[in-house]
Amino acid sequence: MMKSESSREATAGEVTDWLRSWDCGDEAAREVVFELVYDELKSSAAGLLRRERAGHTLQPTALVHEAYLRMLRGRQMGWQNRCHFFGIASRVMRQVLVDHSRERASLKRGGDRKKVTLGDDLEARNLKTDELLAVDQALTHLESLDAQQVRIVEARFFGGLSVEETAEYLSISATSVKRHWRRARAWLYSELSAPRN
To answer: Which of 26, 72, 79, 174 has CA atoms 20 to 30 A from the CA of 118?
Structure first.
């Protein structure tokens, strides 16, 4: 699963064609997909890790590889297109980061929750381990209320997808993405700003 030096920029249609071949059982296609999307996944992972605390032990390459391995272990995804792939990848990267943070927190202490305050620029917020765990817990709670808002947060915050890419991934309008994104951010701000016992 090593990326070769001959990686190039692929069109969305080309990625979609290879994803469909992979989904039909073509083992060689999954390697081609990895080649075609590697740089973009790594860029997204680097952006996520820049939001983490200084000295984070997980590197972008490790995050990409772990997320990709988890995707390989999952059942066939029924890939619709490139945006669908990146939406799923963003969700898996969230899970990898949260699992990594939980492991670190359990090694340090009993995992006390801290108050988290997020500004309007949720996507630019630097999250520490405890904050990432609080965000994940809040997203788990939000999922029971509005799963689509969680998919939007995952795609935008964890996956770095644009409003338009998120709309394509979720098969909704860009206006709906913007509306749900605002609501999700407001809900998360309220949830994460509330005093903890």
So the answer is: 174
- pLDDT per residue over 84-120, tens digit each? 888 888 888 888 888 887 777 665 544 444 444 444 4
The pLDDT tens digits of the residues spanning 121-158 come to 444 345 666 777 888 888 989 999 999 999 998 888 88
Long-range contacts of 167-170 (CB under 8 A, 24+ apart): 168/81, 168/83, 169/83, 169/84, 169/86, 169/87, 170/87
Give the C-alpha separation, 72 to 85, whole Å.
12
Whether 6 is covered by a domain: the verdict is: no
Does residue 4 lie within any of the structural domains? no
**Tally of structural domains, the chain:** 1
Q: Does 62 map to a domain?
A: yes
Residue 53 structure tokens: 């605390």
d(CA 19, CA 68): 13
Q: Name the pTM for this structure.
A: 0.58
Contact 184, 157 (CB under 8 A): no
